[in-house]
Amino acid sequence: MNNWDELITIEQMEEATRTLLENGEKVGADSWQQRAKNQTPHCGFGESGTCCRICTMGPCRITPKAPRGICGCDVHGIVARNYLRFTAGGSATHSDHGREICHTLHETREGGNYQVKDPEKLKRIAKEWGVETEGKDIYDLAHEMAELALLEYGKPFGTQKFIKRAPEHTQELWAKADIEPRAIDREVSQSLHMTHMGCSSLPEALIRHSLRSGLSDGWGGSMMGTEFSDVMFGTPKPMDTEANIGVMDKDMVNIIVHGHDPSLSEMIVFYANDPEMIALAKEQGAKGINIAGVCCTANEVTMRHGIPMAGNFLSQENVVLTGACEAIVVDVQCIFPALGPLSKCFHTKFITTSPIAQIPEAEFIRFNAETAGENAKAIVKMAIMNFKNRKPELVNIPQLKTKARVGYSVEAIKKELDGVCNSHVDEFGSLKPLVDVVKSGVLRGAVAMVGCNNPKVRPDTAHIELMKKLLANDIIVVVTGCSAQAAAKAGLMDPDAAKYCGEGLKRVCKLVGIPPVLHMGSCVDISRMMILASDVAKDWGINISQIPLCGCAPEWMSEKAVSIGNYVVATGIDTYLGVDPYTKGSSEVTELLQGENGLCQQLVEAHFIVDTDLESLGDKMIAGIEAKRAALGI
Ligand code: BF8
Ligand code: SF4
């Protein structure tokens, strides 16, 4: 058993994975570890961004002998076009998730499958948007707001409503740079238009639009996804839970929820607690029903219900390899197609639920708002009835488990601080105490650590090692996505982990009663981080770019992560990447994105820093934070 006082090490996690892979070998299962080997080395043109297949005169690949594509596009145009397309893929994906949430909001009914759980938050947003709330039925208001929110996707004129939340200076920068996000679908469509054969090949124009497309995600689609999820499912508050593969239970029916959209997982969680379902599970010989999550779905349900986190992106196969997973239920994004054939090697039911993510060798149960209750019940029942099909000789649940305190929405962070300092600025308290401890140097600054796993980086190592280094240097870490789960799996979300921190951070954690790594949610919830940064800047009276703060995605892999990177930089926050965004083939594009005086820096006062060396990435972050402090004279 793990000793709670110790962090779980990467080696322990790798050893657990090794035993799981052995389990897989017994039944002929494939694994990402093997497939990554088969795919190595990767295509050098793809990795440097210098292959264009936008039209069928190509594909054109740029070499010293062939410096231009057939149409005459040079390497810089090709790399920049690829970068914008990559960004647009991410903006579309996050924002479409947000759109689904807005549709679900439109389906809320008194006593229905979906309800308004945080009416105060809905009213606050309505006021912000200039919508009358007085005397209105809360569901009428929800439907009106849902329609307005859906219009944010395609309105013919104007810009995203939520950009008004940014400090004035930031808004001015966006206006001056002509990157204020307009309708979300417009920014995504324009990205495809600009990169169509025979349109833009000017790198500055393509990168500038990448920032705009990213902003339509972070301050548009993602922010609506977060805010209206809170309205329907509740705004997260601190609560205790557990993490790592040992949260699966050999005596229970294990249902794993995986994907991103909380509309599905909320319902599954609800029916897993239904006495009728629990009784059925007992009839089938199980002690009960155990729900655990993988990827951002895990983050959504852990933040609001304290559901344990079984793992992150590169541990999604591990949950099936335990031989104790009755069902893995997925909605959208980051789902390995490998789960189809893998689940067939075990008794696991692999259930897809969204027309957006349809996968071979899965059972498809179409989930929609009107029938959500029935759908969820059918899925839970299917898992229960599958318990008897387990093969006991294949059950192997590695006993790795940590404690984690989660649930740090911006509202919750303010409340926690207020509990200590009684500064009562608005109904939630204020960020002033946080500003004061940063000013005084008790905390040196903060890092927002986000993003995925990627086989190009030893899984979770970059997240965990960088966090440890930052914490030791009195830098507080806020996390989302798979980075959050990496932290939780290691034990860094246990409030006791404060003892690994520098003296200043240790004191703050003890005083406020928080862990040194704060779980802020899923990847769409990086919008929470944007609000936090904005509010800190306002409370401090400085610009976002002056705060001793940076973003970091050390193991990122997806298009969504690039979209995020664009809006975090566009918000004025330097962003450190541990994996290259396929731009190294162009010195010009590299300079525009990463130059200390490049285009991004000039337009939005922040830029990207790419370094695949872990130590040096960490050193650069710390140096960056110290430089911001020095510039402020603190
Ligand atoms: O949206 S961090 S692997 S799960 S893309 Fe995916 Fe990356 Fe995980 Fe969530 Ni985000
Ligand atoms: Fe080649 Fe130009 Fe066509 Fe791209 S758009 S494939 S560079 S001809």
Give a concise summary.
The protein is an alpha/beta fold and 634 residues long.
Question: Can you describe this structure?
Answer:
- The chain is an alpha/beta fold.
- Helix content is about 50%, strand content about 10%.
- The strands form four sheets. It has a six-stranded parallel beta sheet, with helices on both faces.
- Helix 22 links the parallel strand 14 and strand 15 (about 575).
- Helix 5 runs antiparallel to helix 9 and helix 9 packs across helix 21 (about 525-540).
- The longest helix is centred in the N-terminal third of the chain and has 32 residues, at about 75-105.
- The two termini are about 45 Å apart.
- It binds FE(4)-NI(1)-S(5) CLUSTER with Oxygen and iron/sulfur cluster.
- Iron/sulfur cluster binds near residues 60, 69, 71 and 197.
- Iron/sulfur cluster (SF4) binds near residues 53, 55, 57, 71 and 197.
